[in-house]
Structure formats: structure tokens, C-alpha cells
Amino acid sequence: MRHLLYTRAPEAHRQDLQNLKRMLPYIWAYKGRVLFALLALILAKLATVGVPLVFKEIVDALDSSHTSLTGQDGLVLPIVLFLAYGALRLSSSLFNELRDAVFARVRYGAMHRLSHQVLKHLYNLSLRFHLERRTGNISRDIERGAMSVSSILNYMVFNILPTMAEFIMVAFILLHQYEVHFTVITFATVFVYIGFTFSVTNWRMHYRHSMNALDSRASGQAVDGLLNYETVKYFNNEAYELQRYNETLDEWEQSAVKSQTSMSLLNFGQGTIIAVGLTLIMISAGQGVVNGELTLGDLVLVNTLMLQLFIPLGFLGIIYRMLKHTLADMQQVMLLLDKEVEVKDEAHARPLQIKAGEVRFEQISFSYQPDRKILHAVSFTIRPGEKVAVVGPSGAGKSTLARLLFRFYDVDSGRILIDGQAIDKVTQDSLRRAIGIVPQDTVLFNESIYYNLSYARPEASREEIIQAAKLAHIHELIEELPNGYDTIVGERGLKLSGGEKQRVAIARVILKNPPILIFDEATSSLDSRSEQAITQSLGELSQQHSTLVIAHRLSTIVDADEILVMEQGRIVERGTHSGLLAKDSRYAQMWALQQEEQTSDLQG
């Protein structure tokens, strides 16, 4: 593993540079503020470097007065120099704070834009990606990625660029006013320091990468376990989940300790280099004073300049390490952005034009994986106002039909048409606006019932939402709750029963009122009495719509205009309820079996 990381170091370096380039559009959107902040930065550094220059003049002026004290009336206070000293200090603080205030919009605006882009990209990714994702890992990657933009900008504008500017100014002063060996020592110290910092930091970066991966894994395990709280309890697997989480944290702890100990080694090496450089500079300056070549003010100036340079340079080592860590964080979110969008609109895709609402499947074949075909040349038509039901055993491909109609996936071959328009030639947005679904497993937001109902059409009035709830036979139940429509449903709607969640889903599709409806086991979680009432409501709703019903309970589809019986991805029978019973084939066997089960339940 370690060898692999070393061999990939050049590639990782290239990725860091590419990621930094990808940040530029987020920053350049605020180019006016960026340029103003850079100007404030330069002015602040000019004032900062000017402080020791004025201080040197103050020391020399006072030292000169002292040496002539025997023949003079006393010390002469260089008031102008003191005022200049104070003005430079004030200017340095003013321009630094001005830079911070102006650049705040750039930092947080870039975070905003990146977070928005990542979430938008995630929404555009296919259902295949979201079925395979780990929510905890992704949420952590997005959080760290957004923070990484802020951190990188912070390091660049508040640390790296100011230090570089100060280094250039100090080098100019040393070359202009002092012997060349002062500059040589300073440059040599800085270059040795930077070389040591870069090499050691790159060596220890694999510990940080390992920490990130293990941190995301631990977060994913924790969130996954909590999302499946009931399953964990059903199987008494609290200890098992904690053990998995603890094993990951053990690995994370080992990487974290190695990261910290290697950081201590780096810090000590940096401190040693700075101490040696400062000592050599001070010895040279002290010798100059002894030889009469330099004044005490020069000694103070050189010492102050070196401290002003090396103190931020010391932080620059930390900043470089943090920058590398942050780039590692950014890499994860960039990998998310690089995920290919599987289902795309064509360049000239037009909005779907609904005229009558006819849906046609023509020779549809489809597979989730290349080696396992789900649908084989499936063809059928849902005419305007008709109800077509699909029945069959689990794994027959029934729910896949709904996913393909929504264009969560593209078909391998064949076409799906709505009013003669191939759905892969129209915009996905217009397609999905024309379809409403009551899924088998309804997942709700952890918000109020009213919010979840209004989600189908956020601009709907309260009266329309309540009317939809009444048609779905859930209004009375909501009114009985202490907070009524303001009741919070809990994570994934866990505070509601399965039947209550399905009624919410039915109310939402009633509120959306699309021309095409899909009922995917829409009454599977309802009791017989509720099922009868809601089946009647669904029947009334579907009269004006083209309806695809995916059913397990055959009693809910006896009024279907056509029933398709599927097995292993093929339509093996089709016809009306009475016609299929008369054939005394597969559908008739399923009907008889369910009638026996229903009779047995009633007797029990």
C-alpha cells in the first residue's frame, strides 16, 4: 500500500495542480474583490516591512544623541520617526483587516458555489450511482470539499502570498543595504527550510490520505447503522455494528498517531533550520557592529527583518502541510464532480408535448448488469385513459418498467414513446413532470406532514393540499394528531406506519395531477378496509389518466383494461381479468392461490 502511494505521488501532484486550476472559476467570479484584496495585501506588507526600517532610524537617532550627550543639552526625541512608526503599524493593521473583510465574500461565495454545484451534480447522476452510494461517506466528502475551498483560499491569501511578498521585500532590502553574505544566508536558510518541508510533508501525506478514507468509512458505517436502526434491533446486532465501527476507528487511530508523530519530526527539523539561520545572521551582524561597519540600528533591523520573515515562514510549514491535507480533501469532492452522468438530455432535446397521454413500450430490452438481462423484447401500449396492470413474481422486471418510463435508466434496445415522442429525445424535466408515481416503499423527508404533502406541488394552496389528503383518506388521521398537518414525520417517515406513508404518497400524486400515473404496489401496506376505500379513489383518479399499475394483490386490478403477466423479464400472458381466468393458465393459478390465502386469513 505504501509503495503504491509513493509510485502515485507524481500523479497525485498533477491532480493537485488540476484541482487548483478548477478552483479558479469560483474565485474569478469575484475578480474585483480579489484584485482589491491583493492590493490591500501588498500595501499591508509594505507597511509591515517599513516598520523595522523606521525602527532602525529611531535606534540610530537615539544612539547618536547618546554618544554626543557629553557635549549636548540632552537626548533629542525623534518625534517624526515615532509618528511614522505608529502610522506604519496602523496602516499594516488597517490593510490586513480591509483585505480580510473584502475577501470574505470570495471565500464563502466559492464555498456556496461549489457546494451547490456538487449537490446539483449528484441530483443529475443516475439511479445506479445512488443505489450504490454510501450516504455518510458522500455527506462527509461534500462537507470537507466545501471547507477545503475556504481553507485553500485562506492559506493562499492570508499566508502564502503575504509571506512571498515579504520575502521579496526583505531580500531587496538586504541586497540594497548590506553585504551579499546576509542575503546568501537568508536565501540558503529559506530554500533548505522549504526543501525539507516539502520532502518530509510529501513523505507523510499517505497517513493523511489513510485517515480521510478511514474517517469516511467510519462515518458511512455509523450513518448506515442509524438509518437501518430497526434492522439492527431486529437482529440484536448492536454489538456487531459497534465492533465494525470500532475496528475502523482503530485503524483511523493508528494512522492519526503516525501522522502526528511524523508531524513532530517535521516541526523539530523546521525549528532547527530556522535557529541555525538566525544564529548565523546575528553573528554576521554582530561582527559588523564590532568592526564598525554596521550600527546598532542595523543589528536591530537585521534581527527584526529575520524574525518577521522566519516567524511566518515557520507557519508556512504548517500551512503547506494543511494545504496538502486540504488538497487531499478536495480530491474527494472533485472525484464526485468527475462522476459521469449516465442519463443525459440530447443537445436539442425538446419539452415533452402531452396531447392524449398514450404510452408505448416497443421491444424493450434492458439489463442492469451486462451478464444479467432483466427485460426481453417487452411491448405493450397504455392508451389514453386506460389502466394497464403488470403482475408476476419478484424479479420478473415489473418495477423496472416504471424506472425506465421515468428514464432513470436508458434502455439497451427498443423505444418508449409518449404520444409518439421517444422519451430519450425529450427533456428529462418535462418527462418527469408528466408522470406521477405511488412507490411501493415511500420515503418521506424529516419535515412536517404538510411539507411532505406539498412536495408534489410546492405552490399549491392549503385548500388544494387538504383536498388531496381527503381524497387519499388521510385527512381525518392527520386532524387527530396533536400538531395536525405540522406533525414532523421523523427520519424517512419512520413515525408513520407503512399504510400512512402510502396514503401520503397517494395524496401527493393526486396533488400533482399528472397525465400519466404509475402505482407500484400502491396499496401493499394497507389493511383491507383502507385498501378498498383507496382503491376506489385511485380508480376515480385513473379514469382521466393513462395508468400503469404494478400489482401484487390481484384484487386491486380486476378493473384493468389489460393485465400483463410477466415471468423472467418476458410477458407470458395478457388480457382482461375475466379473459385470463377463462384461459385457466398462469394468471388463473395466481388468482386461485390468493383467494385461498384470503379465505385462510379470514378463517384465522
Describe this structure in words.
It is a single chain. With 604 residues, the chain is of the alpha/beta class. It folds into two domains: 16-337, ABC transporter type 1, transmembrane domain (ABC transporter transmembrane region fold); 352-434 and 547-604, P-loop containing nucleotide triphosphate hydrolases (Rossmann fold). 66% of the residues lie in helices and 10% in strands. The protein is built from 19 helices and ten strands. It has helices spanning 2-7, 9-28, 31-67, 79-124, 127-132, 135-177, 180-227, 229-234, 238-290, 296-337, 398-405, 428-433, 449-454, 462-471, 475-480, 498-512, 528-542, 577-583, 586-603; strands spanning 359-369, 372-382, 387-391, 413-418, 421-422, 435-438, 516-520, 546-550, 562-567, 570-575. It has a six-stranded mixed sheet, sandwiched between helices. Strands 2-1-4-5 form a four-stranded antiparallel sheet, with helices on one face. Helix 17 links the parallel strand 7 and strand 8 (546-550). Helix 3 (31-67) packs antiparallel against helix 4, helix 3 (31-67) runs antiparallel to helix 10 and helix 7 packs parallel to helix 10 (296-337). The radius of gyration is 36 Å and the shape is elongated. Residues 1-8 and 65-73 have low confidence and may be disordered.
